[in-house]
C-alpha cells in the first residue's frame, strides 16, 4: 500500500462520488439547521475538482510528460488543486472551510508518498485550517466535532499500526463524532440562530467530513489510476 499522488487523486474522486450519492441527505441536514445548500455546494465543488484532475491527466498523456524524466507527482499537488478549486467554486461556509483545510494539508504533504506520521500531520493541518478559518471549537456543533476525534484517533492508531489503520481509525472517529453532534446545541454559525431548536439534528458539515474521510479509506482498495 502506497499513499502517493495517485491515492490522493482516487481519494478526491471517491469524495466526489460520495457527496453526489448523499447529496439529498446533506441537503436535508442543512435545511434543518442551515441554508439547505450544503449538498449541492459540495457536489458542484468536487465535480469541478474532478474536471480539473481529468484535464490535467489529459494534458500529461497528450504531451508525453508522464515519462521517466517527468518531475514526480506529490500528494500535496493534488490537495492544493482541490483547495483552490473548492475555494473558487463552492459557496457558503463550506468552500472556504474545506478549501483552507486542503490548503493547509497540502503544505505538509509535499512528498511523493506519506506514511502514518504524514497522515497525522495532514489531518492535524486540515483541522488547524478549519479552526483558524471558522473560529470553532469542539462541542459547538460544527465539522470540528468530526475532525477533532478523527485527528486524535489517527494519532493513536499511527503509533500501533500502518497507514490503513490510521485512516480507518480517523474515518470511524469522524463518523462517530458526526453522530454525536445530534444532541448538541449549536453555538457557532447559522445553526446557532436556532438556539435550543438546533438540538436533535446532525451537523451537515460533520457528516460531510465523515464522508470525506471514509472516501480516503475507500481509495486504499482501488487499483491505481
Automatic annotation (TrEMBL):
GO MF, any single term: kinase activity
Alphabetical list of Gene3D superfamilies matching this protein: 1.25.40.340
SMART domains: Dak2 (SM01120)
Stored PANTHER family: TRIOKINASE/FMN CYCLASE (PTHR28629), TRIOKINASE_FMN CYCLASE (PTHR28629:SF4)
Keywords: Kinase, Transferase
Residue ranges occupied by any DhaL domain in the UniProt entry: 6-218
Pfam family, one: Dak2
The protein's name: Dihydroxyacetone kinase subunit L
Signal peptide: none
Tree of life domain: Bacteria
Cited InterPro entries: DhaK_L_YcgS, DhaL_dom, DhaL_dom_sf, Dihydroxyacetone_Kinase
Amino acid at each position: 500500500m502506497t499513499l502517493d499522488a495517485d491515492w490522493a487523486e482516487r481519494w478526491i474522486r471517491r469524495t466526489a462520488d460520495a457527496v453526489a450519492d448523499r447529496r439529498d441527505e446533506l441537503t436535508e441536514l442543512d435545511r434543518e439547521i442551515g441554508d439547505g445548500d450544503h449538498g449541492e455546494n459540495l457536489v458542484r465543488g468536487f465535480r469541478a475538482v474532478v474536471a480539473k484532475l481529468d484535464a490535467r491527466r489529459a494534458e500529461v498523456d497528450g504531451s508525453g510528460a508522464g515519462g521517466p524524466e517527468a518531475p514526480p507527482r506529490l500528494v500535496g499537488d493534488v490537495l492544493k488543486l482541490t483547495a483552490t478549486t473548492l475555494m473558487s467554486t463552492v459557496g457558503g461556509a463550506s468552500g472556504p472551510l474545506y478549501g483552507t483545510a486542503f490548503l493547509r494539508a497540502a503544505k505538509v504533504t509535499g512528498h511523493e508518498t506519506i506514511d502514518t506520521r504524514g497522515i497525522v500531520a495532514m489531518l492535524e493541518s486540515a483541522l488547524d485550517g478549519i479552526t483558524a478559518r471558522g473560529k470553532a471549537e469542539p462541542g459547538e456543533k460544527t465539522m470540528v466535532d468530526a475532525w477533532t476525534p478523527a485527528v486524535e484517533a489517527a494519532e493513536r492508531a499511527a503509533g500501533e499500526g500502518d497507514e490503513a489503520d490510521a485512516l480507518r481509525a480517523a474515518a470511524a472517529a469522524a463518523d462517530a463524532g458526526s453522530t454525536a453532534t445530534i444532541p448538541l446545541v449549536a453555538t457557532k454559525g447559522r445553526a446557532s440562530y436556532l438556539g435550543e431548536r438546533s438540538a436533535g439534528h446532525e451537523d451537515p458539515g460533520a457528516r460531510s467530513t465523515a464522508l470525506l474521510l471514509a472516501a480516503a479509506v475507500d481509495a486504499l482498495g482501488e487499483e491505481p489510476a
